[in-house]
Amino acid sequence: MASRTPPPCTLTDLAALPAAQEAAAALLVEGFRDHWPDAWPDLDSARQEVAGMLAAERLARAALAPDGTLLGWIGGIPEYDGLVWELHPLVVRADGRGQGVGRALVADLETLCAARGGLTLMLGTDDEDGMTTLAGADLYPDVLGALAAIQDRKGHPFGFYRRCGFSLIGVIPDANGRGKPDILMGKRIGK
To answer: How do the domains of the chain map onto residue ranges?
Structure first.
C-alpha cells in the first residue's frame, strides 16, 4: 500500500478557536444534509452539538487549512470510565474530502483518546437511506449473519472507517425506524 501524503492542514483544539465554532456548526448542517438530514437539521441544533462537544471531559479537534479555514472536525466522548471513547461526530467539508483530512482527524483522535487511557474507539454509523444491504432488511433472526454479509451500495461511511482500521462490532436493527439500522464499529487504540 502506498503511503499517503499528509493533508495540508493543522490539527488543533476546537475549544481554542471561538471563531471556528460557528463554522463547525454550519459544517454539521451541510455535511449531514444529504444522507442524515435529521441529525442537525438547522444551525441552532448544530450549535448545541458543538457546545456540548466543548465540555472539558470531551475532545473536539479541528482541521484547519493554511489560511485558517475550517476543513473539518471530530469529537470524542468518554464512555465506560474512559476505557472506551465514542467517535462523534466527524465531518469534512465536501471540497476537502478524499484528501486525507478525515483520516488525519481520526488518527489524531485515536492518539488523544489513548493518552487519556482509552483502549477502544467506537462509533455508530446509521443507514437510514439504503446505503448498505442492512437497510430495508429484516435483520432478525440472524443479525450477526446479516452483518457479516454487509455490502456497500452507495458509498456508506462504514467503508471509510474500515480503511481507517475499524472493525464491524455489531448492529442495532431498527435503531432509526424499521429497516434503518445503526452499524457499530470499533478499533483498539490503547495498550
So the answer is: 8-118, 123-191
Contact (CB, 8 A) for 99 and 3: no
42-47 contacts at long range (C-beta below 8 A, 24 or more positions apart)? 47/21, 47/22
Beta bridge partners of 124: 184
Cα distances (Å, whole numbers) of residue 184 to 10, 88, 157, 169: 29, 12, 12, 6
What's the pLDDT tens digit per position in 143-184?
999 999 999 999 999 999 999 999 999 999 999 999 999 999
The one-letter amino acid at 125: T
CA distances from 95 to 15, 72, 91, 138 (A): 24, 10, 12, 36
The C-alpha angle 137, 154, 25, rounded to 5 degrees, equals 105
pTM above 0.90, yes or no: yes
Cell numbers for 155, please give them: 458509498
From the list 85, 84, 72, 176, the residue with the least C-alpha distance to 125 is: 176
Indicate the CATH number for domain 8-118: 3.40.630.30
At residue 153, what are phi and psi to the nearest 5 degrees?
Answer: -105, -35
Element (H, E) at 47: helix 43-53
Fold of the CATH domain 123-191 = Aminopeptidase (3.40.630)
pLDDT in tens, 68-107: 999 999 999 999 999 999 999 999 999 989 999 999 999 9
